[in-house]
């Protein structure tokens, strides 16, 4: 008896599977008669398929069979049932992604939920495929924007869709640091034109900051020459170095952007710079058969060689000291600090960052706190600052936000400027350090970290004096106007401590946080709590 019952159950299960499969096939083919017959025989209108968990209603929505969708709903099918890995897609999302406007209208009329919480996944599916009529329809019903809606629209480089979404309220910034960078990265990698990059810039996107996992800036990633030229004119940092050691000149040379290379050379890009493989921009232009670019770089290379030869063969005549004129870069020297330097002047901060905030951008200005605050009004918003914020210990529940923190360190002549560790912005940080060093007539040292490794730059009176990058205990790039490459330790933290400590700088291990719903604060590690005298923080959302 038990064997017979088990056999009957097995047969029944197989029959149900056959009926379910038959219903799905009928929905796919648009066979309304067969669908009604199966439903009248008691086949479940919400039956699951074996692949991807497809249900009959989703199948009908995917093939735009409205009469079949109506029959399924009348038989009790769940209009908001989900399918897919993790149960993410409803019939409305399937219809929107496949571009079936009539089906989308039908499902909405039958009561399909447009928003899931506060966002509309169907809008993202339509944006991904460029279905403007469906986008308009969903926006009419107050569809909410997902954080990645622009990211998906940018995949195909559809300018009209992106422009439409931005005008409707989609955000080019404020989607989270990683998502904001991904949006810009997608735009600059479009090979058709620079329109998307310009469009995002008009809506507040930061098109100059580090974008990808390897620390490359948007200028490194520009896949159209007009995009590269636009970024250069916007003020992109021409000396940026990626984890592979490439400068923007390497990238433009490999793509044959002759005009962009010409502009970069005028701005001081080094045609002799080598990446980690030992390649110069000229080498890459030759390798990828970019003849015009190769010729341009070859001329720049020879001109630089000729200039060096002339300097060796015709040294300047010796002059009396009182009549000798020297450039600012040759006047700069690192002087041994007269104040006590912490042995962990940078590694303490790096350790705190690694515990939960793996990216940071920070710099120090050799000037009093009040003077940096006053001069900083020319760089950052004048309103929205919270002065003398409270100080607390770090906590696991602390939330992050994009901001600038000005920090005064006890008995130290350097003022610390921390760009939020949740929004690493290497380019802006370096530019701010350079500008403040010029405005205050002093030295500024910028220290940044991203997926591509660490980089440190020294600025004096607005001029770059030294630039160094390292990762895994090895120096990738070193360029200095006043000294040869120093002997450095073999660990990243020790390298940072040496390079930063020789100036007498102390980067207190800290990060901005919220004390409550209205007040900002600074979370400071116990080892530095007595050293932080004061901190001023810019309110979230003010930084652009």
DSSP strand (E) fraction?
5-15%
Largest sheet: 9 strands, antiparallel
- Show unreliable segments: 1-6, 320-330
- DSSP helix count? 23
Record the strand order, biggest sheet: 2-12-4-5-1-6-7-8-9
Radius of gyration: 30 Å
**Estimated structural class:** alpha+beta
Task: Assign an overall shape.
Answer: globular
Oligomeric description of these chains: single chain
Integer average pLDDT? 84
Number of strands: 12
Helicity range of the residues? 40-55%
Question: How widely separated are the two ends?
Answer: 76 Å
What does this structure look like?
- The model is unreliable at 1-6 and 320-330 (pLDDT under 50).
- Helix 7 packs antiparallel against helix 8 and helix 15 runs parallel beside helix 17 (281-287).
- Strand 6 and strand 7 (453-460) form a beta hairpin.
- The chain is built from 23 helices and twelve strands.
- Among the domains are: 1-146, Serine Threonine Protein Phosphatase 5, Tetratricopeptide repeat; 347-538, no CATH class.
- The longest helix is centred in the first third of the chain and has 28 residues, at 2-29.
- Helices cover 42% and strands 13% of the residues.
- It is α+β, with helices and mostly antiparallel strands.
Summarize the SSE layout with pairings.
Elements: H1 2-29, H2 32-40, H3 56-62, H4 66-74, H5 91-98, H6 101-109, H7 121-129, H8 132-140, H9 149-153, H10 159-168, H11 177-188, H12 195-202, H13 218-221, H14 225-234, H15 248-255, H16 258-266, H17 281-287, H18 291-313, H19 328-331, H20 347-354, E1 360-365, H21 369-376, E2 385-386, E3 390-392, E4 404-409, E5 415-419, H22 426-439, E6 443-450, E7 453-460, E8 463-471, E9 474-480, H23 492-501, E10 510-514, E11 520-524, E12 532-538
Parallel strand pairs: 3-11
Antiparallel strand pairs: 1-5, 1-6, 2-12, 4-5, 4-12, 6-7, 7-8, 8-9, 10-11
